[in-house]
User: What shape does this take?
Amino acid sequence: MKIVFNTNKYIGGGETFVFEFLKLNLDYKIICVEDSWLGNAVGKNRVLYYHRSSKYNLLSKFNQWVLKRFLKENTLRITRVLFLNFQDFLTYHSLFNQGEIIDYYCLHPYDFYYRSAKSKLSLFFETITKNRSPVYGKRALFNYYLINKFINGTLFYMDEINRQIHKDHIFVKTKVLALPCVEEKEFIFNKEPGKRILWIGRLVDFKMTALNSIVNFVDENPSYTLTVIGDGSYSNRIINYKNRNRISFIGKIDYRELQEVIKNHDIGFGMGVSSVLMASFSLPTIVGVTDYPNWLVKSEGKCFGLIYELGYGDFGSGIYQSNPLLKNISDVLEYIEKNYTLSSKLSHSKSLEFSFKNVENFDRRIAE
Assistant: This one.
């Protein structure tokens, strides 16, 4: 049996990719947790549920014991596994004894370094070095060891920046493939563009600098308006702003309703998959700057520019380069105002890199 292993409950870029991947690859099933978006979306006949601890640290002995019992009770003979995050990889790695082929799709530049990706040895390294950075630390050496030891299939990266970060430590077969995460759409020509800016994204820690930057810009520029779609634990971290009639927070909405909201705006401002989604609707889309690692750059009022200016598969990984190329939000918006149709066309063309149609390319390359 071939499986995709994913224990995230929320819907993100990786989860939408898995949904499309399973539609094309009928010989795969998914191991996931109950009440997850993926479990509900793909249908019971494709799902194998397992119950894990609600604790964030998925490497707990309890979770591994539960997973072992689950596989034994279901008499599963697994021949191939696809992972999309390091937490799941660590939970499963103690079971790599069936001769299965292990593939991994790395969707974050520092996926192997996350604080939640902790083993006893990596925790020991962190303790003796007193390095509690979420990105850098001696524990990365042990995590690299696990990747090199157990991935005997292919390690995919969503962009070249991702691969270059790890190139001196990774010795398994690697490939680069942009994350298939949006439906391919026809270009929409807007005859009367305006200055209605739309933000789509979770309100979480690493996105707040970008969101506050665009809130601050709109607050100080009366010709623009801003709509914020999304919710999260950091919703109370929005900076104080004066012009509440021009800045509105809608919260989380249904996807069908979201499409209509996008069509009623002129400019997209976002990060990750959300920026690709807005570009697919032909909005000139600006990519905001993540807050991690915040000691590399001061990103207030900055952005990466328009989404089509980034490299293949990249929708914001450039922050992890030693000298990220950042632009002033005000300069990019001024450019869009003067070159709206061109910015719209090129943003839409960029979104085609991330089309769900490219899942077929992933299916072909994973079999190579």
Summary: Confidence is low (pLDDT under 50) at residues 115-120, 125-137. The chain has 13 helices and 14 strands.
